[in-house]
């Protein structure tokens, strides 16, 4: 009997034998792509626990890379991604860590962006940290992400810009290295904001990173 790969039996929504290892992996890659917001030269994936031990058979490695390259979960080219992307651009490591979720991954892009996330089941995901800042991004909302110098009034300045567009903030999550150090802000939004608003926020003094992540389909 001819041996089939997991990608030869997946439905168009990539249900697969394990949506956590397949669709979830693609969506984690897509989210990392959106957060980085530019083309990458190299990426290193560190897969943990179940992702590390059974992910290869379920196509987790292909799914993560394909998502980072912009492929959606129903794209037939995912199964051939290693033939599409230069193999010098990506690498994988496999670890066990009981403190991490069973389906967990670190995505290090160009040694510049460090993103940690989990595939939590049924294709759903969660981004837990970006460059060491804690986050809670699951792709169900458009999310504005900022990094900036911590100082009083920054939340008010950003929220006022969004409020003037009649956009409601569904949730707000902040983190910082120390008082007056580097800080992050993640704002989940009920409706999308335009690129012009993101550019306006980028012009705020001491903001050095701002990107609006569209919700995942």
Helix/strand layout:
Elements: H1 23-36, E1 43-49, H2 50-58, H3 60-68, H4 81-84, E2 90-95, E3 103-109, E4 113-121, E5 124-130, E6 133-137, E7 142-149, H5 154-163, E8 169-176, E9 182-189, H6 195-202, E10 207-213
Parallel strand pairs: 1-2
Antiparallel strand pairs: 1-3, 3-4, 4-5, 5-6, 7-9, 7-10, 8-9
Helix pairs in contact: 1-3
At a glance:
The protein folds into two domains: 126 residues, 60s Ribosomal Protein L30, Chain: A (2-Layer Sandwich), CATH 3.30.1330; 72 residues, Alpha-Beta Plaits, CATH 3.30.70.260. The protein is built from six helices and ten strands. It starts with 22 loop residues before the first helix and ends with a strand.
Describe the model:
Residues 1-18 have low confidence and may be disordered. The protein is globular, with a radius of gyration of 18 Å. 25% of the residues lie in helices and 33% in strands. A hairpin with a 5-residue loop joins strand 8 and strand 9. It has a 6-stranded mixed beta sheet. Strands 8-9-7-10 form a 4-stranded antiparallel beta sheet, sandwiched between helices. It is of the alpha+beta class and 217 residues long. The chain has 2 domains: 6-131, 60s Ribosomal Protein L30, Chain: A (2-Layer Sandwich), CATH 3.30.1330; 142-213, Alpha-Beta Plaits, CATH 3.30.70. Helix 1 packs parallel to helix 3. It is built from 6 helices and 10 strands.
